[in-house]
Amino acid sequence: QGQEKLRCNPKKENGTHLVLCELGNPMKAGARITVDMELSVSGLEDMGDAITFHLQLRSKNSPSPTNASVTVTVPVEAEAELELRGNSLPATTVLPTSWHWVEGSRRLEDHGIKVEHVYQLHNKGPSTVSRVTLRLAIPHQLGDHVLLYLLELGTEGGMNCSQHPALNHAQV
Question: What is the pLDDT of residue 64?
Answer without folding.
Answer: 58
